[in-house]
Amino acid sequence: MKDFNITKRDGSQDRFSLDKIMNAIIKAFQSVGQDADLGAISKIISHLDIYEGITVEDIQNQVEEALMREGFYKVAKSFMLYRQRHNEDRETMDKLKFLTDYCKEANAATSSKYDANANVEHKNIATLIGELPKSSFIRLNRRLLTDRIKQMYGKELADEYIEKLNHHFIYKNDETSLANYCASITMYPWLIGGTSSIGGNSSKPTNLKSFCGGFVNMVFMVSSMLSGACATPEFLMYLNYFIGKEYGKDYWQNADKVVDLSLKQRTIDKMITDCFEQIVYSINQPTGARNYQAVFWNIAYYDKPYFESLFGNFIFPDGSQPDWDGLSWLQKRFMKWFNKERTKTVLTFPVETMALLSKDGDVIDKEWGDFTAEMYSEGHSFFTYMSDNADSLSSCCRLRNEIQDNGFSYTLGAGGVSTGSKSVLTINLNRCIQYAVKNNMDYMEFLGHIIDLCHKVQTAYNENLKELQKQGMLPLFDAGYINMSRQYLTIGVNGLVEAAEFMGLKINDNPDYLHFVQKVLGLVEKYNKQYRTKELMFNCEMIPAENVGVKHAKWDREDGYFVPRDCYNSYFYIVEDDSLNIVDKFKLHGAPYIEHLTGGSALHMNLEEHLSKPQYRQLLRVAAKEGCNYFTFNIPNTICNDCGYIDKRYLKKCPHCGSENVDYMTRIIGYLKRVSNFSEARQQEAKRRYYAEVEKSIQD
After folding, report:
1. Model confidence over 129-139: pLDDT tens digits?
2. N or C: more exposed end of the chain, with fewer CB within 10 A?
3. What is the pTM of this model?
């Protein structure tokens, strides 16, 4: 027994000490007034199976079993109670230390131990209260999942899952929440019945005013039952419907008409922008149900062919169909308003996605292609999703899903919209591949084993979710806001670029790198198809990794792996690389590279300055030609900390008051925030980003 190392509670290794075990047993005997002779202690110890790397908890479990096997039941009970008291004391001390450290840190993201999130802007008692129980949630979630894995696949697989988690080969996203991940909801159940079906007390909207107020309440309720984003792709279509009922379907042709009898004499246009303001500012407020952060709210805009593909058969309860002309005007009005409003205050949500259909190297709807380029040239920050078929829009700002059935039913709601992700389990590709190579293993074979494990774990998670639904705990599914069969189990990937670097590959558009990408991601897709059933759908996503990208780099470096940077990439290129031009990056996120990413990836094109409308229009053609279907342009906005002025340009000092005390707003990964709200590690990553200059190749 003297030659073993044991694993302590903090994960560190220590030499096994038989004396410590003997002393613990003797104290347990003494606590119940019994003598412990050497013979009894020897018999107890003889039952122990000590092996290399065994955990302290496993040793203590074996001691309890050995005491009972030898008939020392009172002693065993005392030993158990002693362990429980010490566990409680340790947990309390850990929480006290966390509380103290949390209060000292610069911001909430840096303070968070488990899931750093720049969306939590202010560190206060509410955010602290939200952080304290997270360790307990993680333990509970792991127990629920491992119990199910044992039931379905056996104890060995459950133990391997925990081992791979603890050694950072895989990462379970959102373990601090019991809720499923994210969803792109259909609002139809709310349209016909209000929120009563999900536990609310508001009735269905009947006019423009009740729509606006009810929509905010509905989004808050839905988001409280999700751990990720809540997308409402039908938002503007429904708003257009209620505006039309209030002012007529041709309201947009008479936007300057005064319709307010009060002293303010407001026009139709002003009434509409007041609705925008009510909804957007309400949802951007921090909420208690979200640990004092704003709801992750996403919306979509559509060009005409995309809209017709998704909503062509949609019917409102009164028998009418959506009006494209009014919606087209309203989408443009909202974008213009929201872009201008962001010069007044920091507004993170909604995350917007422009959905465009493409064909033969360009968008089909030239009007909306031109308008998209116009909005980018005016400094607006949004995503563009471009496809040659109307894939179902997802629930998050970077996902894409390949559901080909875009049919609608007014009784079931927006079938082509009700999608998303139930759960995300992420593979640390850099560690997996390095571990296999260092241990003379075929890395594809080892990676296949890890991917297979992830699919079994996700399948077990799905069974737990179904059990929650049976018990009436998932009203969003029961009420029809989310369609369970259209929700994905996501296999996330992180560290792809870093793994390729370890393999000696150059990170640019070359055959060797492309082959590596297709081979690794193609393996994930192979298992996705293998495990797919009528009720289970899997996809693969290059996760944004706001939090875990930093953690993977830290953990891997501590364990002696090759780690080229302090935050793993979420792209197919290196963010600090200044050798790639703009077109190169579109190619690296083009069709050959994203072929197997059925869960999606987003190209973040970091630019030094805004381009012109013709330049952006040309880049839409580049995207269509290369098959880059999800992208955005990041030009940091300047925020003056002294006078509050916001400028869409990337400046060194405030153009309004001349102060050099400025902050910047940019996308940490998927959503806009002040850089000062990023975690400390992410702030350092933001400084390393290369912002490209405009090239002559896109100036024509």
Report:
1. 888 888 889 99
2. C
3. 0.88
